[in-house]
Amino acid sequence: MESTPTKQKAIFSASLLLFAERGFDATTMPMIAENAKVGAGTIYRYFKNKESLVNELFQQHVNEFLQCIESGLANERDGYRDGFHHIFEGMVTFTKNHPRALGFIKTHSQGAFLTEESRLAYQKLVEFVCTFFREGQKQGIIRNLPENALIAILFGSFMEVYEMIENDYLSLTDELLAGVEESLWAALSRQS
Amino acid sequence: MESTPTKQKAIFSASLLLFAERGFDATTMPMIAENAKVGAGTIYRYFKNKESLVNELFQQHVNEFLQCIESGLANERDGYRDGFHHIFEGMVTFTKNHPRALGFIKTHSQGAFLTEESRLAYQKLVEFVCTFFREGQKQGIIRNLPENALIAILFGSFMEVYEMIENDYLSLTDELLAGVEESLWAALSRQS
Amino acid sequence: MESTPTKQKAIFSASLLLFAERGFDATTMPMIAENAKVGAGTIYRYFKNKESLVNELFQQHVNEFLQCIESGLANERDGYRDGFHHIFEGMVTFTKNHPRALGFIKTHSQGAFLTEESRLAYQKLVEFVCTFFREGQKQGIIRNLPENALIAILFGSFMEVYEMIENDYLSLTDELLAGVEESLWAALSRQS
Amino acid sequence: MESTPTKQKAIFSASLLLFAERGFDATTMPMIAENAKVGAGTIYRYFKNKESLVNELFQQHVNEFLQCIESGLANERDGYRDGFHHIFEGMVTFTKNHPRALGFIKTHSQGAFLTEESRLAYQKLVEFVCTFFREGQKQGIIRNLPENALIAILFGSFMEVYEMIENDYLSLTDELLAGVEESLWAALSRQS
DNA sequence: GATGAATGAGACTTCATTCAT
DNA sequence: GATGAATGAAGTCTCATTCAT
């Protein structure tokens, strides 16, 4: 019934936590093996090598992040602001379903070990949000900043807030989320 | 007269660039030595070891970042919004005077190799801006979000924008800076 | 009726080819399993371990090589030169019946993994030919060189020629074989 | 004065002995380091990796073997048979100056780790002797066998004899050498 | 009997650090 | 003070072998 072997999942989970916590280079394969409660050699049955592991992990989570955002937007929406709300909600959903994953993505998205495929996956994610912004700019709703600046503001803020939550510098409440969403909307939208 | 020997400076500069570009773990001491045009052993005359080097580098730049912000605020100011402008300008000044330094700070601020002292230096920087925010909240100018959320939004956005610039995804113009400042002010301030 | 199970034979054949081609150390047990179309664990039903496998393989083929030579000589013979012809023919027969086997023997006869028993089997082979040479020396037909030198010349040449054939640097023809036999006879026999 | 560092020489010597004795795969880098009385890491200051080491070792000795043969032939010679004598003498000289080297060459000349350059060096050696044989065939002195067969007989015999000497199955005397030379000449030359 | 997923010992290799020059 | 050759601890990865199915 299980399509993905149990051990592979354990390796994936352990990797995510360790990479997010310590970074790719500072995480050793024996560390991963121990945390996944698996022999060191077992990792290599499921992943060609350490780089392969980090790339698969990265792509899977970036893709799922994108899915969360997309499926948020796919819902019927009530105006552009509501579309933004869905995107924001998608981002929140992702962070809730995949603890530490956003921290992992953030600290590894510039890594030299990323393959072209991984970079493309990330690029696709960025592109999707850019498209949404372009539409808003056409409608005169979104600020007239370069798309990359808008992305940097949205993702930079969100990821940093998220990291504060994971590190217990902030506690995750609906109130906080609503406040951050409002703040980011103000950052991105033209002020009336 | 020269308090800091020439070689030490060379090591510092080379380290900054390499750490910013490749990260702490992926940067080797021989690499630093070569880029600093210094023998590998010479580094150990000036720094106890690699961790010591990265910590001194981190602290120095965090402190200088703080100085830039503080000295921005120290100027006579014309209302709270103008104070924010000075802080923003201080941040910009820092990035201009210390290329790659903000990238280095961003990617190393969670490193396991950071000493308590380094963490405190970073904390002090955060604290300073928090104080500024608290004041603004008292005056009803700044949003009623947790201070850490405000910091996350300000620093997260700024660092990400800055990284885009360094990686040539954005070009540094006064217009861009003005736009980003305006956006961040909107994110942080209560909307009238 | 079948005394040797089919799978064991498959393992033997696959091992021979791989050991001959890549050598003992560069051949992995999974490789053997795959080529023998057998599970990796199955090999251990028939052989205690990798060393055991290579030793049994070595002994079997050395013994069979010896048999080919012996049975060549066993035929009624027409003088000493004709005896040599039978020996040579036996060697040729062996190489024809057991492709790659001589290459395997040649490249593994000095291996550190060989047991005393394997070395003795090889020694027995050498001894048999030595005895034949001693007889020839008594009759004044074979050169007055140390037996080991005679063996080295005969086996060294033959194995090297054989390897050239297997690697397609030489093509196996009756003419070639006749020529080589004549050459080796000249090398070993006293010139009239 | 010393152009090649002492340690590199020690590594070379230790490698040669170990590779000759146990083969490439069965020889570990720590083994080499220990025998060379050098730290394991030191080997990598002089050789890129294990394959690089074995290839440099192989090429150097093959080239020197060729030089010995060539410089033997370069001497003024008194007829074709005398030329063969010089070649044989060159081979003997090489084995005397480079103990174990011929055994190393013999057991590694088919290795999968050899680079194209190494194969070419070996090919050049073979080619040189082939040319000598071709000349002899034109003069009707050398047997009408394929060149590769002649090479196989000469090298195969010589290397095997040599290995017997190194393993103390034969003792190296002028008498033995004279006898082997005479035997090999008989193997290669047309009988009058 | 047969299998192949799992293991961990041990191989190759890198690199922070030392120290003789 | 400055150097860089030398080191060995530690990391990545392979593969002979076992054992639950």
UniProtKB/TrEMBL annotation, chains A, B, C, D:
UniProt KW keywords: DNA-binding
| Matches recorded under InterPro entries | BscR_C, DNA-bd_HTH_TetR-type_CS, Homeodomain-like_sf, HTH-type_TetR-like_transc_reg, HTH_TetR, Tet_transcr_reg_TetR-rel_C_sf
Q: What protein is this chain from?
A: TetR family transcriptional regulator
Molecular function as annotated in GO: DNA-binding transcription factor activity; transcription cis-regulatory region binding
User: Which PANTHER family does the annotation name?
Assistant: HTH-TYPE TRANSCRIPTIONAL REGULATOR RUTR, HTH-TYPE TRANSCRIPTIONAL REPRESSOR FATR
- Which domain of life does this protein belong to? Bacteria
Question: DNA-binding region(s): which residue ranges?
Answer: 28-47
Identify the species of origin. Answer: Priestia megaterium (Bacillus megaterium)
Identify the residues that the record assigns to the HTH tetR-type domain, covering every copy: 5-65
Q: Which PROSITE patterns match?
A: HTH_TETR_1, HTH_TETR_2
